[in-house]
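DM from R.C. (forwarded with permission)

"hey, sorry to bug you on a friday — could you get me a structure for this? deadline for the figure draft is monday and I only need the backbone to look sensible"
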Amino acid sequence: MSVRGSFHFRLTNTGNLIGEYMNNVEHAILSESANRINEGTGFVGEYITSWVEDNQAMINNLKIEETSANVFKLVWSDLEGNPIFEGKATLLEENTIYGHYSGKQHLTED
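My reply, with the result:
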């Protein structure tokens, strides 16, 4: 099954991200946080991100690029660089982006 969901991230004063997401597999709103690992401007940059799936911590890479004014492409990949999820987001509030994502399933199925 393909995972499809939505998310939001807030940019902190230190350049990191905190946010929440939901999808068609987990039936809850869950948290995600990301630490910036390179120089970037605003949301644009590379991050190490983490969230919990099936009571297990997931650590992955996240790259955010601006594709046009206030529109962003996000790619989550494993630590070897293999893409897991792709998403698009837009800036709707100061320091907060909202978007959707899809990709292969990490979660175990019942």
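R.C.: lifesaver. Residues 2-104 form one domain.
me: no worries. The mean pLDDT is 92.
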